Amino acid sequence: MSALHAFRHLYVHIPFCKHKCGYCDFNAYAGMDRLMPDYVDALERELVFARERYPFQQLETVYLGGGTPSLLPAPLIARLLDFIRGNFNLAPDAEVTLEANPASTDEARLAAWLEGGVNRLSLGVQGFDPRALAVLERKTDAAQATSAYGLAREKGVPNISIDLIYAVPYQNRETWLDTLRRAIAMAPDHVSTYCLSFEEGTLLYRRRAEGRVPEVETDLQWDQLDAACVELEAAGYHRYEVSNWARAGGFESRHNQSYWRCRPVYGAGAGAHSYATDGTSAWRWWNIAQPREYIAAVPAPKADGEELDARKAVAESLMLGLRTAEGVAVPGGFDRELSHLQRAGLVRRIDGRVVPTRRGLDLHNQIALAVL
Ligand code: SF4
User: Fold this and answer.
1) Residue nearest to atom 2 of ligand 1 (CA)
2) Which atom number of ligand 1 is nearest to the Cα of residue 67?
3) Which terminal residue of the chain has fewer beta carbons within 10 Å of its beta carbon, N or C?
4) pLDDT tens per residue across span 203-230
5) Is the C-alpha dihedral spanning 372, 266, 18, 143 positive or negative?
């Protein structure tokens, strides 16, 4: 193995939530708020250990994801942000994102986030239609989302992204169009739209299996995705990734681009994943998921990991790069797969690059299957 490339991207996982939403299979836990101070201690210890053990250079992005990072009380998040700035070299124009739930976006926290260098909020709105929100078991409503957004703008958050979910049982074209239009009317800088998936082990999965929640027809999913493309593009957002739209002026998520471009990302916290490369092979590892066990295991909370040999690393960078409109430079050794994808109308080759077509973005799972 040659020397690892330095980490310039940091992900920090905050696993606490007020309530576990029925559709959620993220590493998130309700009823553990008492652990927050010990958890932040543990994060700091893991980060000190990581900094000594791995090469870090000036950080270009920091992303606090969850869970619900906005749940951390103002003094605790202020301390964590301060710690990160004091122990890592943050680029002056680093993108620092925090995922926030509208219900925990208040004045005191916003002040702590801004003071701590957060310059991008990813607001978990998910929708405006009460029926869809009820299926998702979201406890926040449209009024809360609108007022949290307004407060964040008023306090000066320069870059705000909104998450929306489509293909929710009972959601129809009209309610989805209304959701999209209300989101656009708020004028966010970035919009993510995720197709609801029924993940095994979730409450929603069980409810569907028991027939208490209806199936969503595939045609309806396509129809809603298409509506998102039409509405968002007409409003000046460009689709730069399968599920992500940004307004002009550089509002693409720089942190998420680091994943799609297979840049090294250090992930700290319970269940967080890290990705490292020496330019040929790559390594991925992940931490213990359960917060109490994570705290006990710090400073070395790694649960497991895997090495990707050179071909697998290229296949993965091709698969991830083809999630984005910019695509990737045509890699060697994948002619057969790329010709197949081209014949299927999923990719095009332009000037030494391979990029997904609109169909390729919509059907990225077929690209992933062919490449991996
Ligand atoms: S708030 Fe987000 S992370 Fe927490 S349970 Fe709900 S969907 Fe999952």
Assistant:
1) 67
2) 3
3) N
4) 999 999 999 998 889 999 999 999 999 9
5) negative
